[in-house]
Amino acid sequence: MESPQANVAVDQLTFSLFQRPLHPELFQLYATRQLKTEKYEALIWVTGCTHVVSVFSGDVCLSEVVSTPGQLLPHRGLVERFQFRGPRTHKCTLSRGVSYMTDFQVEKMSPNLYRQSYADLERFARNRGVFVKFPELELDGLQPFCYVDFEARRSELHIHTFAAYPDQVTMIKTQSLFDFQ
Predict the structure, then answer these.
(1) For residue range 98-108, what is the model confidence (pLDDT) as tens digits?
(2) I want to staple 166 with a disulfide (CB 3.0 to 4.6 A). Which of 45, 47, 103, 139 is the partner?
(3) Cα(64)–Cα(101) distance, rounded to whole angstroms?
(4) Residues 49, 164: contact at Cβ < 8 Å?
(5) From CA 1, how far away is CA 20, in angstroms rounded?
């Protein structure tokens, strides 16, 4: 399996929201999860120190993507696209009672805080979510990783992601809410 791009500049990463599904062939998948409730189905892909979450309800699909520079993504169905340059909150309401909200922040850390965050999240992930680490890309004792935590409620999906970049001693944290009323 090909190594992820873990040494990309964080401010070059892109957050995109699509109103359509995306093909898995576009990404290198390191872990996947599938969820199903009576209101929706969701696919969660860890794509290196990035992720894709696609949520389907009836004929509606929303896909949240964090991607590296040069990642080929379609233009069709693109709702929003942002760079990770500081904190941001975004909300949108789509047709048929579907709403989406995301909030993200970029956190520069000390090496000790990075190590502690890694240990805490890895321990938490033993009971829930998806934790993917990349030990082959360790730098000065710090490993890149991606952790996707999720809470599937009847008509809502809560997603929390943590993507860590050791060369910048930085973590990107996102919180998203997919709501299908």
Answers:
(1) 899 999 999 99
(2) 139
(3) 11
(4) yes
(5) 27
